[in-house]
Amino acid sequence: MTLWCMLYVLQSLFVLYVRIMEQDLKMYTRSQLALRNGQDRDEIWVAYKGLIYDVTTSRLWRNGKHYEHWAGQDLSEELEQDAPHTHHVFDKFQVVGKLKH
Ligand code: HEM
User: Fold this and answer.
1) Residue 79 Cα distances to 29, 68, 70, angstroms
2) CB distance 64 to 44 below 8 Å
3) CA 80, CA 5: separation in Å to the nearest integer?
4) Would you list the domain boundaries of the chain?
5) Under CATH, to which class is 25-99 assigned?
6) What Å distances lie between residue 52 and 6, 8, 11, 13, CA to CA?
7) Strand order in the sheet with 51-54
8) What phi and psi, each to the nearest 5 degrees, are found at residue 83?
9) Nearest CA to ligand 1 atom 23
10) Contacts for 6 with CB less than 8 Å, ≥ 6 apart
C-alpha cells in the first residue's frame, strides 16, 4: 500500500514537472514551423497536439519526409488516421516549443 502511495506521489510530481516545463516553452507560428520541413533548414520539426518535436536525428524523417508525410506542420490528425503506431514514437524526441494557434 505504501509503495503504491509513493508511486502515486512520484507520478503526480512528474506530471507537475512536465506541465511547468511546457509553460516555459517558446511559441512558434505555423510559418516558423513550416521552415523546419527538412528542405529549407537543417532542423526537422513536427507538431503533435500543440507541441513541437525535433526529429532531426531520425533517419525515418530524413529530408523531412516520413511515409508520404511532410515535417514542418501539425500532423496530429494524420497520426490518428494513418499511422500504424501511437504518439509514443515521440517520447525519445525533445520538445522544442509550442505551436501558436
Ligand atoms: C502512413 C503513415 C505512417 C506510417 C506507415 C508510419 C510508419 C512508421 C514506422 C514503421 C516507424 C518505426 C517503427 C515504430 O516506431 O513504430 C515510425 C516511426 C515514427 N513515426 Fe511514423 N508512420 C506514419 C505516420 C506518421 C505520422 C503522421 C507521424 C507524425 C505525427 C509519425 C511520426 C513518427 C515518429 C516521430 C517516429 C519515430 C522515428 C524514430 O524513431 O526515428 N508517423 N513510423
Assistant:
1) 20, 12, 12
2) yes
3) 34
4) 25-99
5) alpha beta
6) 32, 28, 23, 23
7) 27-28, 94-99, 51-54, 45-48
8) -75, 140
9) 83
10) none
pLDDT digits (tens, 9 = 90+) for 88-97: 999 999 999 9
Q: Whose CA is nearest to atom 6 of ligand 1?
A: 83
Q: For ligand 1, say whether the CB of 74 is within 6 Å of any of its atoms.
A: no
Residue 52, sorted as left (phi over 0), alpha (psi -120 to 50) or beta, turns out to be: beta
Strand-pair category, 51-54 with 45-48: antiparallel
Cβ(22)–Cβ(48) under 8 Å? no
What is the model's pTM? 0.84
Q: Rounded distance, CA 27 to CA 50, Å?
A: 10
For residue range 20-68, what is the model confidence (pLDDT) as tens digits? 776 789 999 999 999 999 998 999 999 999 999 999 999 999 999 999 9
Nearest in space to 17 (alpha carbons), one of 99, 100, 95: 95
* CA-proximal residue: ligand 1, atom 28 (nearest): 79
